[in-house]
Design a protein that fits this description.
The chain is an alpha+beta fold. Helix content is 34%, strand content 14%. The strands form three sheets. Strands 4-3-9-6-5-10-11 form a seven-stranded mixed beta sheet.
């Protein structure tokens, strides 16, 4: 039995799963405030995000206890039948995959990107499998440089950094390649949020790491032809080969499933901000860098 941060004690694996999520939630916010001097108001989002989860856990435990009570009743003609149904129905909840944070300082408002580029709250998102306020779904991608398959969860290391995931679509087509080049120019400019929020003596990806996942055939894309901001140069280690990935088939015939799992149109594309704890903070169109800028401006101080 354990008790942390004033929450009630539990003994279930469900509680331990929730505790891990809670630790990440508080940990990255404390790190950001202490290490990066971010707005201290992000600490208040800990309670607003985690209190509803604690209440859900209370309700879950109460219902589970009632199921056990009913199962053990002599009047129950099907012992454990109802309990098994309840367990299977709540399996996603017990793993913590259904945690959904409401909009706040570190979770952008739920917006949708219309297939034709206009923002609307009444149409499916360009990346509607990427749900704002929920954990990013896991999926497999191939490294553009060496075709090594990897899961996205392994790329999102718990090191305190935000991630900007770019889904530019099939960049083997001239139109979408040109769009990506334009996006790269905007991200590289001295006025971009990436430059403004990164200390001049720090690596460009020290606070916000940009990961690109395109939908073209790997053989049709040359990594070094992409904007440098997507595979930045380091005097110590050269080009960064581990920031561009592809949703393609590997040498064994296994197909990556990034765009399908995230429900992203390979023509429209989208971009997403992922928080240091793996939760999606914002999903918007590739042309909506102003929304990304506004999100980070509310968290980070401008550095020089």
């Amino acid at each position: 039995m354990s008790m942390q941060d004033g929450e009630i004690p539990h003994t279930s694996s469900t509680f331990r799963t929730k505790q891990d999520s809670k630790a990440y939630n508080l940990g990255w916010k404390l790190f950001a405030c202490l290490q990066w001097d971010t707005a201290s108001s992000i600490l208040s989002t800990y309670e607003s995000e985690r209190r509803p989860v604690a209440q859900e856990l209370l309700d879950f435990d109460q219902g589970y206890a009632q199921s056990w009570s009913n199962t053990c009743s002599p009047a129950n003609a099907k012992p454990f039948h109802n309990l098994e149904d309840r367990h299977l129905a709540n399996m996603v909840f017990t793993t913590g995959l259904l945690i959904h944070y409401s909009p706040n300082l570190v979770v952008g408002a739920s917006t949708s990107c219309h297939p034709f580029g206009t923002r609307s709250s009444e149409v499916p998102s360009a990346g509607s499998g990427l749900i704002t306020g929920m954990r990013i779904p896991n999926f497999t991608v191939l490294n553009q440089a060496d075709a090594t398959p990897t899961q996205i969860c392994k790329l999102l290391k718990a090191d305190g950094r935000f991630r900007l995931l770019l889904f530019p679509g099939d960049i083997s087509t001239p139109k979408l390649f040109s769009r990506l080049q334009s996006l790269g120019s905007q991200l590289s400019s001295s006025s971009s949020f990436v430059r403004r929020l990164t200390p001049s003596d720090a690596a460009i990806d020290s606070r916000i790491e940009i990961l690109t996942i395109h939908a073209a055939k790997r053989s049709q894309v040359e990594l070094l032809e992409l904007p440098e901001i997507l595979h930045p140069w380091s005097e110590n280690s050269g080009w960064d080969w581990w920031k561009v990935y592809v949703d393609d088939e590997d040498v064994h015939g296994n197909v990556s499933n990034a765009y399908h799992k995230c429900e992203i149109d390979p023509v429209t594309g989208c971009l997403a901000i992922v928080r240091p704890d793996g939760y999606v903070a914002l999903v918007c169109g590739l042309e909506e860098l102003d929304a990304v800028d506004a999100y980070f401006a509310g968290i980070f101080p401008v550095v020089h």
